[in-house]
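Sequence design from tokenized structure. All designs in this work follow the same two-part layout: the structure record, then the generated sequence. An example of the structure record is given first.
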């Protein structure tokens, strides 16, 4: 699954995949990962990814991007981080982020995507990652995350 997500993101960054196609692809992956067959395919001892939680996109014009996602997808602002120029969008009436927009250069990049894990416990996930030889990081831009083999920030929530 990581290879598929990585290929989607690479295609998007190269401009050969539209934002809409990226979102559709990620949604399909999330739906497939919820199937019983996908659950059986996961190896024992791995962190059980349950869903694509959100995608964070770096944008040049925050108000214009917010307006686009509101108009096209009907999203509403679910939270803001004004000092860091981040606006999180999702379904009206919820606090669930689907797309996070970050006014930051370079623009038109997915700076990270987040995988939601079942019963997320930061300390337990940290221990499990370290057993795999992976050291997680915690920072403002990508939260609690690791780097995939291509260097993409993968947030774990």
């Amino acid at each position: 699954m990581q290879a598929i997500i990585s290929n989607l993101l690479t295609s998007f960054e190269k401009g050969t995949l539209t934002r809409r196609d990226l979102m559709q692809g990620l949604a399909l992956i999330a739906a497939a990962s919820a199937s019983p067959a996908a659950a059986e395919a996961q190896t024992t001892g791995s962190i059980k990814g349950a869903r694509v939680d959100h995608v964070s996109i770096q944008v040049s014009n925050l108000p214009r991007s917010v307006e686009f996602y509101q108009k096209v997808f009907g999203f509403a602002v679910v939270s803001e981080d004004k000092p860091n120029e981040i606006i999180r969008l999702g379904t009206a009436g919820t606090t669930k982020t689907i797309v996070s927009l970050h006014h930051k250069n370079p623009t038109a990049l997915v700076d990270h995507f987040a995988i939601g894990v079942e019963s997320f416990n930061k300390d337990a996930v940290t221990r499990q990652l370290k057993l795999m030889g992976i050291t997680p990081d915690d920072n403002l831009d990508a939260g609690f995350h690791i780097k995939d083999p291509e260097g993409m920030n993968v947030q774990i929530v």
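The chain has one domain: 45-156. We note this feature because it recurs in several other targets discussed in the main text.
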